[in-house]
Amino acid sequence: MNKLQEWPEPIVRVQSLSDSGGPLIPERYVKPVLERPSVSFSAANDVNIPIIDLAGLYGDDHALRATILDQISIACREWGFFQVINHGVSPRLMDHAREVWREFFLSPMEVKQAYANTPKTYEGYGSRLGVEKGAILDWSDYYFMHYLPSPLKDYNKWPAITDDCRAVLDEYGKQLVELCGRLMKVLSINLGLGEEQLQNAFGGDNIGACMRVNFYPKCPQPGLTLGLSSHSDPGGMTLLLPDSHVPGLQVRRDENWITVKPVPHAFIVNIGDQIQVLSNASFKSVEHRVMVNSSTERLSLAFFYNPKSDIPIEPLKELVAPDRPPLYPAMTFDEYRLFIRMRGPCGKSQVESLKSPR
Length: 358
Prior knowledge:
Layout: H1 14-19, E1 51-53, H2 62-78, E2 81-85, H3 91-105, H4 109-113, E3 124-126, E4 141-148, H5 165-190, H6 197-202, E5 208-216, E6 228-231, E7 237-241, E8 249-253, E9 256-259, E10 267-271, H7 273-278, E11 288-290, E12 298-306, E13 312-313, E14 331-332, H8 333-343, H9 349-352
Parallel strand pairs: 1-2
Antiparallel strand pairs: 2-10, 3-4, 4-5, 5-12, 6-11, 7-10, 7-12, 8-9, 8-11, 13-14
Cofactor: L-ascorbate; Fe(2+)
Pfam family, one: 2OG-FeII_Oxy
Keywords: Dioxygenase, Iron, Jasmonic acid signaling pathway, Metal-binding, Oxidoreductase, Plant defense, Vitamin C
């Protein structure tokens, strides 16, 4: 049997475990002691990732534009994460998309089960990442779907719980692809390249885009588990629409975990492994994880903007020098994604394991 055709064990929906009202979580979800949120150190509550206003990015105020570019450059080099406001995506559309997904996850289980996924493509309704038998699992369910390239976009694999559901999700994806394209130009300029160069390295217009909607049910023992284990994102760039009321995302900063405080109608932007590779580690993909809680469920929409799947990704030649040799070998995103899907979330070990010996 192809190990990516079927899950190694019967799938248990975390939402069903939560709804059962049991006081204990199954052993399959209990993290090793040092990975538990109750043990690892979190920074002071007044620390947050950078918040950047994009309103002046395309105006006539050149000084303001330079300031915004500089803010994004610092965030990419020092944090790997930042929030953007006044980004051009309709706030009403953001709210509508979030409510569509909330309605899906609160639908009867038989409705959701009609969209159950397999590890072959991950498309649809799922409850685990990775195919290692006996692996410790995360306290979350999710829905995964493709936007680009067009041949992978299959509306029949999108939920259709309301009449306008698919139209809302289609427009949401369209606006986020446009925002990612604008941010790619900024990142390219900040690397000292032409504004289209990073996008061209992704494949120009032939990029990939997909979304994973994460649902984190209430958890009776939140100190023992995680909604999503520590990992860096394997793709190019991620735009996260977080829950507007419930914090949960934590970003690693040195030895601390920073709990992100979402700004209303902001997107949380983070650099993925593919941009770390292309930038020869000038820009950092950073570990992050998700906490759960005992009182409130949580929902987030993660939109992934990725390179064309079959072109080699390696450090751009303009960012390589005798005193800064290429840190990574060439690898297609397809190859890297298969590597990730076999193993599940593993901190930063995925991309770090690819580094060329020095």
